[in-house]
Amino acid sequence: MCEHLEMPDVTVDELIARYRRALVSMDNMTLEQDHGARNWNARVHEVQRAQLMLRETPEGRAAITSLIDDAVPTVARWAASHSLFWDEANARKHLEAERSAGRLDVATTLKEFDAGRLQHDWLPPKRG
After folding, report:
1. Using the 8-state DSSP alphabet, how is residue 3 labeled?
2. Which candidate among 4, 21, 51, 77 keeps its CA 20 to 30 Å from the CA of 127?
3. pLDDT in tens, 81-97
4. Residue 77, Cα to own-chain centre: how many angstroms?
5. What is the number of other CB atoms lying within 10 angstroms of the CB of residue 76?
6. Residue 3 to residues 8, 26, 56, 82, 110, Cα–Cα distance (Å)
7. What is the pTM of this model?
């Protein structure tokens, strides 16, 4: 499991809980109140650490994909974005609906994915 992330062995359930918890926190955050986006960036790094480990196994990928139907919009959008790489049809269906509702961030995600430029394999800093 992603030794380069220096995380102890954790279960899929623990990782998906971390992933979702960070995204719920982001959903409740306003960038206007987060000077320098420090809290936002810290949550993004938490999500990325969990996502990198989860995507390594079929169970982890399925756990992320299951969050596409989450009631929290940020959770659903990020899960769909990550799932594009292994369940494109399901993820795209959700993201297309979001794009048609005028979400510029979703339109950009789909544009970058379709152009082969969407990157979800970057390594976050060790902590932060």
Report:
1. G
2. 77
3. 999 999 999 999 999 99
4. 8
5. 19
6. 9, 26, 12, 21, 30
7. 0.89
